[in-house]
Amino acid sequence: PKLANRYADADFSCEKVYCGYMGDEGMSNTLFSFLGLLMVAYRDDACVCDPTILIDHPRHTDISARRRKLSEFLDVTRDADNKWRKLGLPPVVSVPDGQISYQIVSTHESELFELVHYTNKYLHKARKLKMKLPTHPVIANYFRMIFRYPSDLILRYINSFPHQYTAIHARVEHDFRTHHSGAWKSNGKNVKQILEITEKGLRELVSHELEEDAINNVVVAVSIDNVQSKEADDPEDIKIGEEMYNDLQEKTTFWGASMQLIEKPTQFSYFERSLIDMIVCQRATYFVGHFWSTFSETVALVRQEKASTFHYGSGKLIPFEKSD
Fold it and tell me: What is the DSSP letter of 322?
């Protein structure tokens, strides 16, 4: 408690401010990169910059890729009543880009990478072994803050979902099928297979207390714009992508449940759409993801109801805590 309250009641001077240039990866890796920076700052009694993040998809960027501050999406700015500070997290301050010395970033680059990599690896291992997660305030409170206090604009879309629903992270996008071709051939599933695995598995694994309202309201998290193939010279993948895309447009499942893609305005950035997907999945009655996905892994990590968190990659529904 003494550590957790270190910043809560103090007028912190921010004699040291650590900065990072986040987001040249997907959503989950961006969040873990910022976690690593916060852990370095926590150890050194430092503040951190409101980080600049890449808000467009990392594989769709060019010299004009859009970048914005994290505080535009999540409540991380420093003010008198800021929830972030009350949770004991290092204060986040706004520093003009022109005043940042990037020597700070390069000094901690290797250390930050190790923190991000081993923190993620440790949390995954702890979950598999059913160990109690550490009470370190940065780790414990960071994801609590990320998912509990998104911007009002994002909350507007998250709160539109029914009280009970099943969220599926369908990892069927073109990049997964091609960049991880070996993993796709052994563990990839099409939309129809994912739905079959989900329905059968839920009825078998939680049959005695199955929430029928939840299994009859299915929402799907997927980057729909990236489902169809971009490779004109791969006719097989073009066909697969078209079938996936069409299956995702269905409004009902084979067992008669309502099915919808998680609604995300087209004008929203990749980061905003991913954040909506992630929070909707985190709040679901049942969550079904893929163990190869860092997105699914992150959702599984922060969900309170571990017994209702599953993966479909092996061909049958398995609790995420037993994933390999």
Answer: G
> How far is residue 1's CA from residue 23's CA, in Å, rounded to a whole number?
32
Reported pTM: 0.79
- Can you spell out the DSSP letters for 173-191? -HHHHHHTHHHHHHH---H
- Give backbone dihedrals phi and psi of 92, rounded to 5 degrees, phi first: -105, 125
Residue from 58, 251, 35, 71 nearest 154 by CA: 71
Going by DSSP bridges, is the β-strand pair 67-69/47-49 parallel, antiparallel, or unpaired?
A: unpaired
> Going edge to edge, which strands form the sheet with 47-49?
17-18, 47-49, 92-93
Q: Are strands 52-54 and 21-22 parallel, antiparallel or unpaired?
A: parallel
Distance, CA of 226 to chain centre = 17
Phi/psi of residue 17, nearest 5 degrees: -130, 120
Write down the pLDDT at residue 128.
Answer: 62
Query: What was the pLDDT predicted at 6?
Result: 45
Average pLDDT rounded to a whole number, residues 160-186: 80
Q: What does the angle CA 279 – CA 322 – CA 312 come to, to the nearest 5 degrees?
A: 60
